[in-house]
Amino acid sequence: MPLVPVAEPRFSCQTVLPIRFRVLAAFAAVSFLQGASFSVFALNPDLSILLLPSLTRNLEGWTLNCNNIAQAGFIFIAIYLLRERPSPAPTGLRTIAVIGSLTQFVQSFCWYVATLVPSAEVQVWLVLFGSSAGGVCTGCVQGACSRISAVWFPPDERSGATGNVYSAYFAGQLLFTAISLFFCADFDVLYTLHVQLGLSVLNCIIILAWFPDRPVSDESPLKIYRDTLISRATRDATRGASTRGTHTRDGTRSTGGGLLDRLLDRSTQPAAPGDASEGARAGARSRSIAKSSWLSSLRNVGLSSVLLIISVSWSTGVYQAYGQVLPLAFANEGGATYLPCNYSAYARLSNAQGDRFALASTATYAIGGSFGGMVADRFFERRLKRLVLLCYLALTINFGLIIMSMPPPPFFVTNTGGVSFGPGGEPLAIVLVATSGLFSSMATVPALELLAEAATLSEGASNNLVMLGTQIFGIMLTYLSNVIATPGLGILICIFIICCSVIVSPITERYARFEAIHAVVAEEVAMATILEQTAL
Questions:
Q1: Which residues of 227-243 are buried (b: 16+ CB within 10 A; e: fewer)?
Q2: How is domain 18-216 classified at the CATH fold level?
Q3: Could you tell me which residues belong to the region Disordered (predicted)?
């Protein structure tokens, strides 16, 4: 069919910001607020005890434990809610967004009320209950990254969308961890809790009143992808019309088809004898997942998907734990001190090596997810494994340099005064720790998308299984940080990343999800463009 000119749309919110980006922003806001709330009590024990003296060190540590336990327990519920179902059945995204926003509000509300009640016992239970609610929220936002990009975004935008949702949580952690350096009184923390509670209420109202479960047909990823291919193919055809009649060096005529030629090759090339096309197989796999139960889909995971889940869980879990335990690791080596509130924030940060390293790591980790998704969409289409391996290689080299900048011995914790630095001193070590956060996050996002592309699991299942593995490997490194010194942790993580690279190397890339959507639009786009080119 010939291409029909589309009238210029009137100015509206839709023309300024398409609905898929507004949905992404609303969901990322839940993730950001959860990361921000989590950083107030769970990641700042001194602040927690300053505000609530009823929290001892052991009880304060349980704010983190309750969060992790609740997150791990909610993972299989999230897999069920986000399971593949044939249209027009719900995708589960609205349910997840509602649960996430409500539990984030519950966490903010409990922590705020805990500062008002006089009973020490009630304070403790409110903080722990709020932490558990926060763990459920974390399971919602971190386990739905690939699902929201699959439902709302075309193939050439999915990695970027996944990266933005994934990074929002760590951006929230970064902001409020940095702000906490300026806290010197109870009022400062209370003011932060006021702001968080107000933002939580606003976000809940937006999610409950507006957040859609799936796009309408005019905004579906299939239509967006089709329109994009038509636009590119038409542009190539128009450009090719000006060169029609020219000849190449081998004497053949040049049509300048570009994308059109590739679409024709993909859509009209006959399949091998006795075999279906890759697009047909991909569509059959997608329909099979949609029709099967969520438990049976977990039993049918391929070996490549299992290896990839182990690899990305291992690398992500140990690095996230590494960033969180850096203050503790430096304290174990005598390199961190606590200064009273009459010191400036700059003075406190200058005397807390672990906080400086943790902030640098979190900052680049938050950037790396979004940047890695953008790089994957732009330069590594259908080559995500290559990007993951390149990031692992860079991370291995990075930790090798970290080992040199903070050389052993001692390998084990000695409590004998400070971490020693090699050539370049502490500034070089901070730069290296910061770049390690960038490469680690850049490896995670394309790995999540590669798992989703294989289509052996639904996006919700693969994403949440990675989050479960991240919890397990993170707990392992957190335990090791109590007995192994900071340089020793660098050596272990370097070995772990090498192991992850070895695990990923034999994996066969499969882009069943991409082939399924491409098979639907490729022939239609190609034939429409042929008619348009003939008319020129």
A1: ebbbebbbebbeebeee
A2: Growth Hormone; Chain: A; (1.20.1250)
A3: 236-261
Residue 422, amino acid: G
Q: Environment class of residue 114 by beta-carbon count within 10 Å: exposed (0-12), middle (13-18) or buried (19+)?
A: buried
User: For residues 66 and 377, what is the distance between their CA atoms, to the nearest angstrom?
Assistant: 37
Q: What are residue 4's phi and psi, to 5 degrees?
A: -100, 125
Q: What distance in Å separates the CA atoms of residue 391 and residue 385, rounded to the nearest whole number?
A: 10
Q: Distance of CA 364 to CAs 143, 253, 359, 486, Å? A: 21, 51, 9, 20
Q: Which residues on adjacent β-strands are paired with residue 336?
A: 352
Q: Give the whole-angstrom CA distance, residue 21 versus residue 219.
A: 11
pLDDT of residue 488: 78
CA pair distance 373, 351, nearest whole angstrom: 36
Assign a CATH topology to domain 301-505.
Growth Hormone; Chain: A; (1.20.1250)
Residue pair 433/361 in contact by the 8 Å Cβ criterion: yes
- Taking only the tens place, the pLDDT of each residue in 317-349 is 999 988 877 776 665 555 444 445 544 444 545
Q: Tell the residue number behind the tokens 């734990």, with chain if given.
A: 321
What's the rounded Cα separation, in Å, for the pair 145 and 164? 9
Structure pTM? 0.84
Task: Please give the Cα distance from 154 to 439 (Å, whole number).
Answer: 25
Contact 260, 526 (CB under 8 A): yes
Tokens at 251, concatenated: 């004497």
Both structure tokens of 206: 């937006």
User: Chain centroid to CA 5: how far?
Assistant: 38
Asked if the domains at 18-216 and 301-505 fall in one CATH topology, the answer is yes
Strands (DSSP E) contained in 25-122 are: none
Backbone angles phi, psi at 446, to 5 degrees: -65, -30
pLDDT of residue 242: 53
Measure Cα distances from 376 to 145, 390, 444 in Å. Answer: 15, 12, 11
Every domain of the chain and the residues it spans: 18-216, 220-240+255-291+518-535, 301-505
